[in-house]
Each structure stands twice: as structure tokens, then as C-alpha cells.
Write a structure and sequence with these properties.
homodimer, about 700 residues, alpha/beta, Rossmann fold, Dna Ligase, domain 1, 4 domains, seven-stranded mixed sheet, 24 helices, about 20% strand, flat
């Protein structure tokens, strides 16, 4: 992959001497950025550009070429690539658009390109992309003509969209953040975003990585790479709704994904997910600093109003204002300032005009053990203070190093001075109070996420009779059907998930007998492969209090099913005791196309439907993960015991979740599983699955 | 109030010739901003400053003075103000800090100032403020030395904090937004933010008003003024949490307020509430444009990636992507561009390089009836395009005028060009895609809010026996107690809120008799003024199925109450039938210290506790308001009938809410009322208050 960013010689293919030719922009960019290798221009009409010859084909180039950059009409790309192959070029960036994103014809062209690449052992970025930049060696192959608008730094970017990538660069330039490498992957036909990420996490010049993705090609791999990375990874994943799907498909041929799964996967692998340009800027800036390891903030402000806004924002971000020792406050008051406003945290130092003293106060504040980070809200009142302000900033930069704690530095000053600071100091400058605290929230969140990914997970050994389950699933798949209710319950039981006592009854008489054995009241549920929503057609009859109720319910059920599904093959009913007490939850799992198996848990009924209360994790999970899923539910208090109600047996549900996760890991043939409901009882009284449904993959 | 902004002569009091004197900054600012009146410098040490004499007292000034700006030590402010009074000065701005915000001594000083002001008929801004600016006449009296960093425009600012006000100006300057007037109110001892707002809504040069408030002094008046205003009003209300309260009190002596009430009040009076600098900037920018009247957006983009992000953001903001007629799309495709990406909405025009054509497309899009606004996502790829881009912007400005619809204009370009556009065009420039759509969301929200405030409300005539209620409340207050349960229920009934049949029983025998009359099962509830949480001590006994249960429950209740509240005076019990069916809601109301009476409604039980599901409105409300409160609850679907459940009688609850609102309007002596629960039945079957509690104001 190194050849993409560090080629010694590059052929730009598709260059002509016409003024509106985009290929010549690339040549000009390489010159402007001072590429430290050889650039060959190639184009069928020949001629010259930027004082150099345009070769008619790569074949005419007298030397070896490391990297081909292709920007010819789509139709001839396969031929051009083949010429490259014959020339012995192993790496390419195909910028041309008009492939899969444009329909069937484009897809055929892509197949042809892939074939050529395979035949000649070529690896390529694109097609339908804007190219790459490496600030270290002056490689700059995007087709728009670019000035040197951004400084060199340690942030590298992988973007699916060239336009969004360029916007990101503009934002970085504006914030004074330096770029290391940039690559736009477009349709990512051969080299994937994941491949480039894998390269960048080891790349020496890169300290922070940003990805813009409209689709995730291999979620598991993305997670695995991210977990290995010691560098922060920020991802803006768009294409999350209904409206974006159409345009994303026509843009970079992207498929959408389950947004909750994406969030969970990122969280689990230490990826910082961002949702707009503001959190992009905040994230890049704050992650340059030491992490916010705890929740205790000190706010030092030159304006009382900023202090109030900061205090509100702290509360919304879940931070505490560290209690500053009275001796410390007294010292500040005595030594540093006239007493106009009484000191507390936030430290409102409005009437203190000696900026040198601010640095001393920040120093002393950072030194306090109970302080995890400082928000410094500066107001550079007028131009006469700019020099002192800059000195103050330098002092603060040193203090951050010294104490290895973050100082989020906000300044209210005229635009010119703010811009000067951003461009001349390698330190984050914030200009919005609320965003300053949100940035620290990002830092703390990232720190926790990171800690969590480093935790060693304890997967349980489950002594399930896997052969039995395999056989059951195999039989069903052979019959081209999903698991029956009774089978699903049996699988759960084999994996150690407590299930309600269930007896299969083929006839009404057997149902009566079973009910007598189980004891009243009972529930009966139809067993039939073709009926998916069994409660809608009377396939679930609850609270049957005696023998005759069982008969009535059985008959009623069969009549209604016969009406609704005349062709359904009914295999009987499951008779279960009625279970009461505790509260109903839903456990589930599915095979996500990008991330593989995931498990979920939610409060039952309207909480799922109206309040969307569901926690999701990519498997495998361990017990602690499962507990965190439950605790993370907004309605968690209902489980933990609120208003004197008893705490429920969270441990048991967590255990069931872990077992479900193992089941999905073991059997990728299970496409979807729903345990709805599982009833969780009071603490130490366990839980019990009352109903289970498993859908299998086909083929 | 005009004299504050348009004085003909100003005395700056507290000036000395020392280099670090703040008063001399004010004199210098007046010169720099070209104040078109006469400035007198006043200070006890005399001397000269900025080529002018410093008078020792205002008395020495040979002419009449319209406005005094005072920046002397706090202790002598009363004396100085008295000198002003004797001189005949009627208006002042007191910038000095160190008053109420600093404790008891400061409060005394404030009292002294108020007395002087009353004696001499002086009205003043401050104390503890940064002063005022009027860009129209060059009045500029803040004490920091200011350059002319912001252009003249139509936005005016009222701020409680000088520092936050200055930050707002920096943000505006950076965004190219022009200022008209600026005033910092500080402790707002005499002239309130509300007074200044009243002035500005009539002020000719002001088109948009921004307020930063840490406290709201007279919420009702603020609402009333806002409703009268034809100019958009944006308010950043801070001091909303626990953490901010302490610092706000020490900063501008501000009291905190109920954040939900503030939001409701703003919503009801057409005030746009903002929460950070981003929404401040977005709001000011977007409200310069015609409003987004509907929900149908068209997105025109030069980058597919931006289009995807925009589509996601549209969905999150509740917009729809307008369906563009196929003939329209075909026309664009045929006339304007090669076919690389198929067109839809968002219109991704990536390969179209003639910017003139973009203007034509925007023109034709705005013309479509189904389009309420356009998001234009521009990428100015390189410097060579800047001229064409500027022309495009001018065309778009004309189109906005022509069609009276908003075009939210985003541009990704290098910082210098973006800054040029912001400073040279009186048109909002956005640089973040998601924020561009959020801005349109603000526009639409403001438009709807505005429409709503213009709606004529229909308050019902309620034929309550007010004398009866007045007497009951009067008696209770005379006895220095709140209303008893039985009395509260009676009041509700008098106001036409359906209440459950309730019989008062003084003895266990009477309770038995009452139960027999009502019919079983019954509930009994203790009537006792001293017991606030009656269910916690067995004071509510439900579901009593027969005569002997009533006896047991009565005895149990009395035993437990006697234990918990040995001194409580028990007036008996209320016997009620058990009511089932439907769903429980909570209705309530209270006297808010800033906004007067408010009503609230929420789903009962855990929904209030865990999901914080409560809707609030400042009274009076009408039926439509009440319906909107109910529909706005996140759990509203539970009332509207979800999953085949029957719809509940929303109309009846709304009616009860309106009646409760009228009750609170009629009787400000009611400090708090709780109807918990009120049971709402199926559609057309009404609702019924099962319990009511009313707390009265004292004195």
C-alpha cells in the first residue's frame, strides 16, 4: 500500500494540452506541491503540458512507473489498465467516474477492470474518486487545481466522497489543523477503506485518522483494525436514513446499514463517531491533547457570562465542577486580585488584567489532584492584549505537557487574531464556549471507549450439545423452513437460557393432558412453520384456567388459523404454564450484513415501539458488556428498582444475553432470533424465556 | 429610552489620564467610532485625555448633558449619580461592578442608587455592565478599547453579560453580520432587558434582536412584548442547571428559572430559543431570508457526498425531499449536462462545470410549487472559479427575492474566499452541510411559532361558582393551611373538571355506609392537612371489595398515620368507587415566579419519572393549545391508539386542561395543583380526576 502514497514515479494518464483538461490539473498540482519523484503525463493526443512531453501511451514511457493515475473516459479504462499491467505497473488510482454508480453498463466495466487487475496483479484505488495527497512528499493527484491551502501535520483522511473530503480539508485548514495523507476511495472496488486504514494505523506520519464513509464494506474487519490502532479514529458515517439511500447508491454505489449497529460497533472498537462538521473539528482538535480521564472539570473564565454558560454545558455533558480547596481560592484572592467577585468553580476572574497571573492560576489548578482537566475561557479584550495573550497560550501549552491533562482553550477575540493563533500554534483553539465543553466530552468519551476496548473479555464456556442444535438447524434448512416454536425453545434451552416448561401437544386431548400435568392457568401457542405473527390470528391463547377453557381455546385457535392461513401446516400446540411477576423484556439477535451477528435487548411492549428503547452490540459479548447494555437503556431504572420496587435479576438477563451471543457466533445459519418476551423476576430469582422465534438463512 | 442610544451629549465619569484608566478607553472608543455628539470626560483628578479637558465633576460641565456613563468605584456611585441628578441628567449607564452580586454591602449600595434615581427621576442601565454601542451614530461606551471590528447592519443585541455580548459581536463580525445597537444590562436594577426590548421592537434600524439572559425578570411582560414584535427575537437563556446557579448569582445576581417553563413561554410568544453559538449564528443568518413555509426541500449539490449528508440531515430535521417532476429532471439532463449520475432530489450535479447553469437550475427549482426552499451545496473547487462563484451568489440573491423562498447557501472553499463572501455580501453563507439544514429547520420552526402566536385564541367561558371557590380558598388561607383533599376535589368539580364520586366519612361507620351507597369495590383516602404524601403512610387504600375490607383498611390507615404523624389532625376519609379502564395521566399547574401560572400534563407513573414526559404551557391556553400539548408528548401514540388499541378521549383531557388553566388564572392564590391521576377513557367516554391536591400561597 505504501506505493500509493510514496511512489518514486507516477504516470498521469488522460492528460492533454487542452486548457480544460483535468489531467493537466493533476500534473500542475504535483508541481505546485513539489512532488519528490518523477511525473509522466500520458494522453492519446500527445503534445506537451507544464513544460513536459505527453506520452501517447504508458508503453512509451522510457522508465519504470510505480503508480498510474487514470482519468480517461470510463469505457477505455479497462484497456488503459491493461496497458499499465503490460508495462509492469502494480498500483493505480482510477479517478474516472461512470461505473457501477451509473447502472448495469458501468457494472460490466467494473468487472472488466477487476479482471485486468487480477490478471496483472494490479491493486487500485477507485474508480469514481478524487485521488490522493501525501503532504510528506508532495504527492497531489486530485483533478481539481489545488493551491497549497493546508499545512503539513499529522491528520490523515480516508474519504468515500471526494467532495466531502475536500470540505474536510477546508475545515482543517480553517482550524489550522495540518494534513498528513488524504485518499478518496470512491467505489472502493479493489482497495477498500479498511485496507487503507490498516496502512495508516502503522503509518509513521499519521497520528489521527478521519474516515468519511457512506457504506461499510467489511464491518468486522473495520472493528478489528480499529481495536489494534493506538491512534484515534474518527468516522463520519452518512447514508443513515431513508432519504439518503437513493442518492448514496447513485453517488458511490453505497448500501445503507443499520445505524444502531454501526454506532454499537464503533463504540465497541474505540472508533469515535461524529455526525457533523462541528464534532469533526472538535474531535480532531481535542484529541491532540492528553485525554480527559475523569469527570472533574475546573473552569477558569475571564467573563462571568462565559462561566455561567460553561457551567450549564458541564452539567449537560455530565461533568462535575471540581471542588477547589478553600485555601487555594483564598490564595488566589489574596495574591492575585481585588475582591469584586467571590471565587468558586467556575473561577470568574473578570477584573484581573495581568494575563501572566492567569497562567499561574491554570498551573495551580492543574496541579490539584481532583481536577481532570481545565476549561480556560479567555477574552482578549482588545488588540493591545494580543501579545500577552499569545504568551499566555504558550504557557498553557507547556502546562498541558507538564501535567498531562487537557486544557480546552477558548478565546473570544477578533477574527484576525483567532486566525493567527490557529495558524501559528499547534494547539486547539476553540471559539464557542459550549463546543469547548462538548469537545472535552468527546475526549472523555473516547478515553472510556479506548479503555473499554483494551479490557480483556471473558467469554463463557457453554456446554451446549452443539451437534443436536446443528442437526435441528440442518433438518429445518433441508426442509427449507425456519425453526418451529418448539425447536426454537429447545435450542435456547440447550444454550442454557431458561425457558418456560413447554409440552408439545398434537391434538386437543394431548393439550388437555399437558395442561393437567403443568397445572392451571396455562397458555397454548400454535406450532406452525408458515405462521409468522401467530398472536395476530389467535395463535397464542393465554390464561386458560381450566380444562374446558383449553378445549375452547384450542378450537377457536384452529378455526381462526384455518381461516387466515388455509394452507398452513399446523404441527400442534405448545402448552405452557402462565408466568407472572417481574417484567417483560425482549432479547434478540440477527446477522447484520456488514457486521455479522449482533444481539439486542429492550424493554418490552410500548417501550420498544414508542420509546425505541433497544441496546445493541456486535457479538461476541461478555457478561460485563451485557450488564452495560442493560444499564444503558433509558428505562434501566425500571429494572434496577425504582420507587421502592424490587430490583430485578439483571444478572440473569445478562447471562441469557451472553448465551444468545454465543449461539449466534456458533451458528451463523441463524439469521434472526427473537425471545419475546423473556420475563425477568426479582433479584436472584432468574429470568425465563416465554417465546422464541428463529429465522434461518437460506441455501 | 431613545436617550440611551441617541444622546446629543455624553459625560464619561471616572476618567483619568493614567494609561490604565478604563474611562479613557471609553472616550477613545467614542472618537474611534465617530460619535456624532459631544463627549465630556469627568474625573476627580482632572487633567486631560484625548486632547480634551477632564472636568472634576459634572457640575463643571458648561452645557446640558443627556447621558452619563459612570465607571467610578462602587462606593461613590450614589454620590456621583446624585451629582448627575442635580445637573439635570436624566439618563445614565452605570458600568461599575461590585454591587448585589457581591453581597449585602453591595445590595445596600444598590438601594442607595435606586433612591437617588427615584429622587431625581433618573433612569439607568446597569450597574455591573459593559455599556452600549449604537453603530448608527457612533455611540460606543464599553470600557474595553475597541477597534471598528464589526460592520453596521440590522441586528441589535441586549445582553446581561458584557463578555458574552462581546463574544456574540465577534461571532457576528466573523460571519459578516452587521450590528445596529448593543446594550449590556448587567444587574438590570432600573432599566430591564424587557424595557430595552420594548424599545428595540419599534426601533427603525433594528430588524433582528438577540438577547442573552441569565435571568428573566418579568416573564409575562417579555412574552407580551415578543408577541407584539414583527421582528424575530432570539434568546440565549443560560443558567439552566444546578451548576450554573452559584456562578450566575455571583455574576449578575441572577436567579434561575424552570427551564421547561422558559422553553414553553418562548415557544408560545414566538421567541426563538438558542442554546449555543452555532444556533445563534444559524438563527441570525437564516432569519435574514424569507421563511421556510413548508417542509418540502430541494437539494442542489455539486458533490454527491454533500448530497448524501444533506439527505440524512433533512430526514433528521423532519423535512421531505420534494419530488421533482420527471420532465423537469429530463430537461436538466438534456440541456445542461452529460449523463454520468442519474438525477433525483438531491440533484447531484457533480460533473457540471458551468456555474451559470447552476443559477438556472436553482431558478427553475424555486419556481416549482412543491418546493418551499432550496439547499444549495456549492463547492468552489479552485481559485479560478471564485469570480464565477461570486456571480452565482449574486444570482441566487436575486432569485430569493424573486420567489420569496429561502435558498440556504453552503460553500466549501478556502477560508479566504469564504471570508470574502461573508464580508461583501449581505446574504447568509454556510460552511457546514448539516448546519445548513438545521438553519432551515430553525426558519421553519420560527415560521410556525410566529403563525401560532398570530392565531386568535378562544378562551372558554366557564360558569364556575367563583364565590364558592374564593370562600373555600379564603377559609383555608385564614387557617394557614392548604386545601383538603375533599376541598380540592370540590374546586375541580366547580370548574367543570369531571371528578370521581367522593363521599366524606368522619368515622369508620360513615365510611361503611358510604361504601354501601357507592357500591364495591371502593377506595378510601385520608383527609388531613398535615399529610403531604398520603400514599406513603397507608393514607390511600384501594380496591376494597366488601364491608369488612373497608373496616380493616380504615383501621390500618389510622394506625399507620398515627405512628407516622402522631400530631396530624385527621378530618376523615374520602370514599370513592374504584375506576378502571383507559389510562392514567397527570395534570398539574403552578405559579411560576417569572411567568405566573403554568399548566402541565404528562403520562402517569414511570413515564414522568423515567422518561420525563411532561408538556408545559404558560396560561391561559385554549383547546387547540391543550391538544397540541397532548400530541407533543413523546408517548402520545399511547393516547392516540397504537397497535389496534382504542384511541382515548383526548378531547376530554384537553378540556380539563383548559379549565385548569382558567382556574389558575382566576386564583393566583393557588400555588400548586396536582391532579394525579386523572383517568382518561376511550374516545367519547371522557376522563375523571381521581385525586387532587392544591397548595396555596401564604400571606
Amino acid at each position: 500500500m505504501r506505493e500509493i502514497f510514496y511512489p518514486r514515479s507516477v504516470a498521469i494518464i488522460g492528460v492533454s494540452s487542452k486548457p480544460d483538461n483535468l489531467g493537466r490539473n493533476i500534473v500542475a498540482n504535483m508541481v505546485e506541491y513539489g512532488f519528490d519523484g518523477i511525473v509522466y503525463a500520458v494522453g492519446p493526443s500527445g503534445g506537451m503540458v507544464e513544460t513536459r512531453r505527453i506520452y501517447r501511451t504508458v508503453d512509451d514511457i522510457p522508465d519504470h512507473v510505480d503508480l498510474a493515475v487514470i482519468l480517461t473516459p470510463a469505457k477505455i479504462v479497462p484497456v488503459v489498465l491493461e496497458e499499465c499491467g503490460r508495462k509492469g505497473i502494480k498500483w493505480a488510482i482510477i479517478e474516472t467516474a461512470g461505473f457501477r454508480e451509473y447502472g448495469a453498463e458501468g457494472r460490466k466495466l467494473e468487472d472488466a477492470i477487476l479482471q485486468v487487475a487480477e490478471d496483472y496483479g494490479i491493486r487500485f484505488v477507485g474508480p469514481n474518486c478524487i485521488g490522493a495527497i501525501n503532504m510528506e512528499n508532495g504527492l497531489c493527484v486530485p483533478f481539481p487545481r489545488l493551491s497549497k491551502f493546508i499545512k503539513t501535520g499529522d491528520v490523515s483522511i480516508i474519504t468515500q466522497s471526494g467532495g466531502v473530503g475536500m470540505s474536510a480539508l477546508n475545515i482543517m485548514a480553517n482550524e489550522g489543523l495540518g494534513l498528513n495523507k488524504f485518499v478518496s476511495v470512491g467505489n472502493a472496488l479493489n482497495i477498500k477503506a479498511e485496507d487503507l486504514l490498516e496502512f495508516l494505523i502503522e503509518d509513521e506520519g499519521t497520528e489521527l485518522i478521519f474516515l468519511y464513509l457512506e457504506t461499510i464494506q467489511d464491518g468486522r474487519r473495520l472493528m478489528e483494525i480499529a481495536k489494534r490502532s493506538s491512534k484515534p479514529i474518527l468516522v463520519f458515517k452518512s447514508n443513515i436514513g431513508q432519504l439518503g439511500q437513493v442518492i448514496a447508491a447513485s453517488h458511490t454505489a453505497s448500501l445503507s446499514s443499520d445505524n444502531k449497529v454501526v454506532s454499537a460497533a464503533f463504540e465497541q472498537s474505540g472508533i469515535l463517531r461524529i455526525h457533523d462538521a462541528t464534532s469533526f473539528g472538535n474531535g480532531l482538535k481535542i484529541l491532540k491533547l492528553p485525554p480527559m480521564r475523569g469527570k472533574n472539570l475546573a473552569v477558569v473564565s475571564r467573563s462571568g457570562g462565559h462561566a455561567v454558560i460553561a457551567a450549564d454545558a458541564c452539567e449537560l455533558s455530565g461533568f462535575q465542577l471540581a471542588e477547589l480547596p478553600q485555601t487555594f481560592l483564598d490564595e488566589i484572592e489574596n495574591h492575585f486580585r481585588a475582591s469584586v467577585i467571590r471565587l468558586t468553580n467556575p473561577l470568574d476572574l473578570g477584573d484581573l488584567f495581568d494575563l501572566d497571573v492567569y497562567a499561574q492560576i491554570v498551573d495551580q489548578t492543574l496541579r490539584l489532584e481532583g481536577v481532570d482537566g481545565v476549561v480556560f475561557l479567555h477574552t482578549s479584550i482588545s488588540a493591545t492584549e494580543h501579545d500577552a495573550s499569545r504568551n499566555l497560550l504558550e504557557r498553557i501549552m507547556q502546562l498541558v505537557q507538564k501535567y498531562d491533562k487537557p486544557v480546552a482553550y477558548y478565546i473570544s477575540a477578533d477574527a484576525r487574531e483567532v486566525n493567527y493563533l490557529k495558524q501559528h500554534y499547534n494547539f486547539p483553539i476553540f471559539t464557542q464556549v459550549v463546543e469547548t465543553i462538548r469537545a472535552l466530552e468527546i475526549s472523555h468519551h473516547y478515553y472510556c471507549e479506548e479503555q473499554e476496548t483494551r479490557r480483556s473479555k471473558k467469554r463463557p464456556k457453554i456446554s451446549a450439545d452443539k451437534d443436536f442444535v446443528r442437526k435441528m438447524i440442518g433438518n429445518a434448512r433441508a426442509e427449507n423452513r425456519d425453526l418451529l416454536l418448539s425447536e426454537s425453545m429447545a435450542v435456547l434451552q440447550h444454550y442454557g437460557i431458561p425457558t418456560v416448561q413447554s409440552m408439545v401437544a398434537g391434538t386437543v386431548e394431548q393439550a388437555q393432558d399437558a395442561a393437567d400435568v403443568i397445572g392451571y392457568p396455562v397458555a397454548i401457542k400454535v406450532i406452525a412453520e408458515d405462521i409468522s405473527h401467530k398472536s395476530d390470528v389467535g395463535g397464542v391463547q393465554l390464561n386458560l384456567r381450566n380444562n374446558s377453557s383449553v378445549v375452547e381455546a384450542f378450537d377457536d385457535m384452529m378455526t381462526r388459523i384455518d381461516k387466515a392461513y388455509p394452507k398452513a401446516k399446523v404441527d400442534g400446540v405448545l402448552v405452557q404454564p402462565m408466568v407472572t411477576g417481574g417484567r417483560e423484556l425482549i432479547l434478540g439477535g440477527k446477522q447484520d450484513p456488514q457486521f455479522g451477528p449482533v444481539v439486542l435487548v429492550g424493554l418490552g411492549g410500548i417501550f420498544v415501539e414508542i420509546f425505541d428503547e433497544v441496546a445493541v452490540r456486535v457479538t461476541p459479548i461478555d457478561h460485563q458488556d451485557a450488564i452495560e447494555m442493560l444499564e444503558g437503556l433509558r428505562g434501566a431504572q425500571m429494572l434496577m428498582g425504582v420507587r421502592g420496587q424490587k430490583r430485578l435479576d439483571i444478572e440473569a438477563v445478562a447471562d441469557a444475553l451472553v448465551r444468545l451471543s454465543e449461539l449466534l457466533q456458533d451458528f451463523p445459519e441463524i439469521k434472526e432470533v427473537d425471545i419475546n418476551p423473556i420475563r425477568v423476576f426479582h433479584e436472584k430469582e432468574g429470568c425465563m424465556a416465554l417465546d422464541g422465534r428463529m429465522v434461518l438463512t437460506t441455501g
